[in-house]
Amino acid sequence: MRISNASWPALHNLRVHGGGVVVYPPGATFGPRRLPEYLFLWMIEGGATAHFDSRLLEAPAGTILLAQPGMTDRYEWAERTRTVHAYFHFCADAPRAPWPPPSQWPLAQLAPADDVLRPLFRYALAALTQPEPLRSTLLTPCAELMVRAFVAGALGLVAEPGADLPRPVEKTLDFIREAARRDPAPQIALADLARSAHVSAEHLCRLFRRSLNVGPLECLRLARLERAASLVGRSNLTFKEIAETTGFANPFHFSTAFKTVYGIAPREYRLAMSEGRPVRANPLIRNLQLAGPATGERTEMTGRT
What is the pLDDT of residue 273? Predict the structure, then answer.
């Protein structure tokens, strides 16, 4: 059920605690445990059967779960494939009317293709790496918006300004998004991009330059670099492994391309992320939301899973 949350008052004393991304092998289990606070959990890959007290929930990839303080949770992860999930814990005072009582809140939502929760989840995980007070300044409104959207069922993302892009550009961006998420990244030529948009390569280049001031192959490269940056900052993979995974010819080519976009070499970027220092954003990807979560990574931030 979707309900309006416009008149709901702010959640008082909302504080976000630890979070991260965890990879479980096939058939693993976790719990039971009694939760002292709220838990947001996003199934990125694989899935689970989740037990919240006496409630049993099937949670395939794309499911967002919200467990409440005092619940006992237990998970049986997918038997035939690994499971990757992101999470963070938070606490808040009991919500006041006209918020619905927590006993009426949903426990799970299956995110649609254009949902708002998964982009906000990625934002929250990145904000967790920042030092205080910036960390709380970024996380508190993000977490509250996620709770409002989840409880109200208002998950759809309003169309980006890029929604008025020419149709061939939109189709190519969809193709690039999918290609950037594949592991390992496939080799893609301009002709492949043009074929995905059903136009000539020359026409596609003109449309991209006119709409985005960047060519389609450069857009693909930036999408791969965004995924690479996620792996550099949030995994223990070597730079050679990251280069191979994201479709770069060799570590030297990868490092050169990475430094051109992010201003520092991958090694420096990884150190900056581990120390909570700010890093330069990819100039195009964040606006177009070309890169999805980099699955298969292991993230250790703070707190519990």
Answer: 83
> How far apart, in whole angstroms, are the C-alpha atoms of residue 109 and residue 42?
10
Cβ neighbours, 10 Å, residue 73: 20
Q: What is the structure's pLDDT at 274?
A: 83
Tally of CB atoms within 10 A around 113: 8
CATH number of the domain at 161-288, out of 1.10.10.60, 2.170.120.30, 3.10.120.10, 3.40.50.20? 1.10.10.60
Buried (b) or exposed (e) across 219-253, using 16+ Cβ within 10 A?
A: bbbbbbbbbbbbbbbbbebebeebbbbbbbeebee
Q: Is the pLDDT of residue 160 over 80?
A: no
User: pLDDT-based confidence at 195, cuts 50/70/90?
Assistant: very high
pTM over 0.70: no
Classified as helix, coil or strand, 3 is coil
Instruction: Find out whether 22 and 172 touch, Cβ atoms under 8 Å.
Output: no
Tokens of 20: 């991260």
